[in-house]
Amino acid sequence: MAIANLLETISEHRCFGGTVGYYRHRSAVNDCEMRFAAFVPPAARNGAVPVLTWLSGLTCTEETFMIKAGAQRVAAERGLLLIAPDTSPRGERVPDAEDAAWDLGLGAGFYVDATESPWAGHYRMYSYVTAELPEIVATAFPADMRRQGIFGHSMGGHGALVLGLRHPETYRSVSAFAPIAAPASCPWGQKAFSAYLGPDPAAWRDWDATELLGRGRRSPHTILVDQGLEDPFLAAQLNPEALEEACAAAGQPLELRRHAGYDHGYYFIASFMADHLHHHAAVLGAP
Fold first, then answer.
1. pLDDT tens for residues 89-138?
2. Which helix (H) or strand (E) holds 20?
3. How wide is the angle at C-alpha 121 spanned by C-alphas 117 and 127, nearest 5°?
4. Alpha-carbon distance 55 to 156, whole Å?
5. CB within 8 A of 91, min separation 6: which ones?
6. pTM for this model (two decimals)
């Protein structure tokens, strides 16, 4: 219980018979205070439930998903515990982009473990999401850590794909909305990877889903991806066709759905959120 006792409850709110909560704790991994949100479904009163971690996109916080995605009703019905961490470390000692750019530094952790100065001391979102935060969740909530899934949006979609492919034994189900599917080949990814991981593209390969698929990484079940065709970032940043080609070559089952008229934002996400929750529930054995 020591870990759970270190959690500070910022606020809790009744929602569809469950609870949406916002929490703060000291992170040893990121060497700063971190925040995350959780939705605990009513089924958790009767025992441990599956855990579904959401990774948000650039500029978002731990609040964005809980406020905008409209996930709680179906999560309550299917008995899914939702976890939504912040998108980067924050605080006075945490470095930010010198020009306060929105695609690097605060709000733009890219779910990697940085190796380069000045980022390496704090920007370790990969280790935070895959190791430190799950330890807290397992202790503080009625979570069945044997049944975990991961999903996300944009930068967080990249994170979900990479973490799911790197840890198939942990994340049994994977999905994404408008993911940055080949970050080593797009401006957002190249900027972040150069800063966090250094200028050598060889160091980026472990953080690119298309590269991982080409090197034998797999998810145990079909990956679900939704992409809006009116997304302003589609052509330059997202490259879903690269993911499609990599999955086909690797024999990785992929359901890539393209939607006319939808853009990159949370109206798009909310429109298809129920499909993603049902997808994860089916894999994780939720009722």
1. 999 999 999 998 999 999 999 999 999 999 999 999 999 999 999 999 99
2. strand 18-27
3. 120
4. 4
5. 32, 33
6. 0.97
